[in-house]
Every structure is written in C-alpha cells, then in structure tokens.
Amino acid sequence: MKKSIAILLLITMLLPLFASCQTDPDDKGAIIPVYFAESFENLDPTAAIYDKDFYQISGLVFEGLTSVENGKIRNNLIQSWEKKYNEDRNEYFLTIKLDNTRWNDGRAFTADQVVYAWKRILSPEVDCPGAALLFDVKNARAIKAGEKTIDELGAAAVSIRTLEVQLESPIDPELFLEAISSPDLVPMRDDVVVGKEATWATNVDDIATNGKFILKQMDPKGSFNYEFSKFYKLNSEMKNGYNEFVKPFRLISDFGKTSADALAAFDNGEIYYFGAVTPEIYEERSKDIKSFDTISSYTYYFNCKNKILSDPKVRQALSEALDRGQIAQLVGMGSKACEGFVPEKATGSSLGSSFRKEAGAVYSAAGDADKAKSLLKEAGVSSGSIRLTYREDRSYEEAVAKYAKSVWDALGFSVSLDAVSASSISEAISSGKYDVIGLDYTGLSTNPYAFLAPFAPGYCGAVVSVDPEDELESLHPTGYESKAYESLLDEVLAATERKARNEKLIELEKLFATECPAAALVTYKNNYLASSELSGLSGSIYGYTEFTNATLKDYKTKNEAYLEMEKAAEEAEEK
Questions:
Q1: Residue 453 maps to a domain
Q2: Is 392 found in the same domain as 494?
Q3: What is the average per-residue pLDDT within 145-163?
C-alpha cells in the first residue's frame, strides 16, 4: 500500500514536467519589441562597414560555418571535419561535412554556396578586406592578385554537403577553422547575388540569409521585423525543428522612433531591450547596464599619401602624444584604453589565451609628449595643417576630436575639425579625402592576423586590375605601403603552427605601431538595457546581442496585447 502511494506521488510530481515537454503547435514563442542602435540600408556582410553597430542587425540573420567561444571552435554549420594528406602529390586537405540546414526561403544549404562566397571575395574585381583570411587555401592569394583564375581555387564541393579545401601548407586546422568564423566569410548564393551585387541585401524580397532569424520586414526609416527561421537546421525527422534552436518568435525594432522615444518606451514597458546606449545613458543608468567585451575599437586612420603624414615618424608622434586613458574617459561606456592595435580579446598562442597579454603593451597608454616631440624632430617636421574628421552624431567622437586637436596643436600643428554624417565616413575613406579620420575598426576574426593583414597591399583585399597596362594601385584605404611589413606578413603565413604564427604577429604589431598607418584608441564594450522580464541573452565578440535563447515572462499575454495594438494601428492607418 505504501509502495502504491509512493508511486502515485511520484507520478503526480512528474506530471507537470511531462506537460512542460509537450510542444504546443500554436505556440511559436515570444514577440519581443526591441530597439537596436540604428538601422542600415545594406546588410551585405562583406561590405567594409566602419560602424560597430552594423553587426547588431546583420549578426542575427547570417551565420558562419564556425565561431570561437570560450577558447574553443564551435561548429555552427559543420558536422565534422578531417585533415588529409596526399603523400604522392604532397598535398594537404581539409574535408568538411556541412550540417543539414536551409536558407530563409527553404532552399537547401549546400557546399557550393560556401565555395561561391569565397570565390566572390577573392575575385580581383571585388573589394573585401576579409579576402586575406582565405590565403591559406591553395592559390587564393594568387587569384586575388589576378595571377591565377578563380577556377584554380583549392576549394570544391565534392558532394551536396561536403566541402574539400586544399591548403597551401600543412597548417594547424584550428587556424583555418578560426578564420572561417569571420562574418565576411558567411555562405552566399549566386542565384541571389549575381546581377544584384549592390542591391540584393537591401530588401526582404531579395535577401537570402542562413541564420537563426530571418527578416520579414526591412525599412531603415521604419521597422525591422525578425522572425525565427523555421528552416534553420530543419530536416525531415524534426517536425518542429526550429523550436530546438530559437526560442523567440519575433524581434521587432521600430527605427521610426528616436532613441529618446525608444528609451521612454523601454521605461514604460513597451519594449524590452534597448541597445542605443550613449555615454549619458551609461552614466545615468550604470547599475542597470549590461555589457560584454568586443573586438571593436575606436580608431584613427592616417592618410599616408598626405604630404605631412607620409613620414611614419609623424604618424607615430601623433599616436604617442595621445593619452588613451583620458580618451577612454571621454568615450565612456566601459571602454578601455588600447595597449596595442590588436584588442585584448583576440586569441594568442592558443584559442584560450590573449594575444594582448602575450604581446604586452606597445602603446604608451598615458601618452608620451617628449617621445612625440623627439620623433617630430627626427622627421624634421614642426608644423602643418591637419583636418580631423569624425562623426557628427556621436558626442564622444566630438569630445575625443577636440582633445586630440588640443594635443596636436601643442605639438605645433594647426588642426581643424570636420564633423560629418555616418555615411560620409565611408565615403571619405573610400575616396581618400581625409587627413585623419575616426572610425570603428572591428576585426574580421578573433585571430590577430585579421586585424593586421588588411593594411598590406598584397593582403588588403582591394580591387585588382588584371590589365598589365593599368596603373591602378591596390592599397589599403590609408594608402600604407611597406615592403618590410608585407615581408613579415609572408613569414606569418609561412608558419604552420599557431605558436610560431603568434610570435611573428607580435613582431608585426610592433612594426605596425612604429609605421602607424592607424592608431587604435579605445576598445568598445557592447552595452544594453534589458527588462527584468527578459532573460537568456548573451553576447557575441563581434558586438551583437544573441537572442537565440531569449525568454520573455508571461509572453503569451504580452503577445496578445501586442497583436491587438498592431491591428489597431493598421486599422487607424487604413482610415
């Protein structure tokens, strides 16, 4: 009798657990109104975007083959990989089996879409700094230089979901798997991109995405409406496969609101996530701010073609004179003074180690005016006019620009300030019409190579002319050229083991600091406000918040209220 009662009690206790495991086919998850930092008109992940907030949107809808998390390679879209060696031909291969997933329109994800994406950015006519991340692939560098044809790339789809990659040398596979975690190297579809290179990622009718969320609405002046992708890792054996990977049903960000209106809506409980944190908001609400580290830095590019700035000693002097600790206070928001061009969260001699800690500081964080003056004396430069360009919509950029002006004026220069729109930053960089310009520099991989390689002409990924009579120069936007720097990069690639590469990269960063085509000032944190009713958020090193496991308290009731409000708004608009 006692045993029967015990069994009944156990069943009673377990019933709620069994019930919670049942999947309600009508319950798709929470609708979560949010507000990201800003909207973008083009979400092509291979575009050179000098704005840390870009990935807040694109990072939700595109997914790379791998990612680096907690010192390990995570296989996002890879089932398995195997390293092979053909002894007869002395050839090295990685055979990669891809996961079973689909695109936002239900099309199957295939190996040839990975190959197309890589070939696209390696094409001589395409400008993409991520190209150098593929230079471990056979012939990739020669193809980008216009010396070999794209069909000679050592990457091929040997079956629908099997990718074979021939390597230039027997490198540690971990180095390549880390490289392909880059947001520049996400898969793409030729049937979507070809013929629409400039527009395919600008509207929901044309865009093709492979991430956990898809865009149902994309209006840069109105709303971005994300919805979980029911095709993500869905196969015939999983009736409700999307419920296994993505918890929220929708994320809706209304860019028709100003950030002030959005913050008020957050305070009123109308939205549950606010990502447009400014220094003022950070200070006012420091106890409520949630943060995570990124690999994005506020950086000054120097135009190396400028007569005054053409001497590396002048550029280094301008960098050395700046007190990065003071700049961190001006930027605020948890930013940290840079000790080198490569940020602290970049990987070192192992995936779990920090390059910054291993390399040590190469910048004088407090600034060194005496060293700056000495460098200028060596260069024979004591004066000159410099235009410093920065974004007009960020108060902290203006504050930093005014500070830099005061420091450089004290060195004898005449510095003028040029406040421009966000779109004008990219235009100025691409045209070379700037002296010194402030921008967000986000590494395209966690490996320090991704930060340093794009500055060398043979590694920058710029458009290359295949016409031998064409004098087009393929340079980094700074116009930086150094045979010593490029030669040292060649040595980095020649090293097959991570530790050996890391040692060369430490040398390379020191040379970079001396040549100084750019100066990293502070490393950003990603900051946001989240309602106490919203949980399960996490952060990406690239600076976007992960909503995959987000849960909203009492979401069914909230969903009904939101849908009723949405319906009322639509009816009012029709009238």
A1: yes
A2: yes
A3: 97
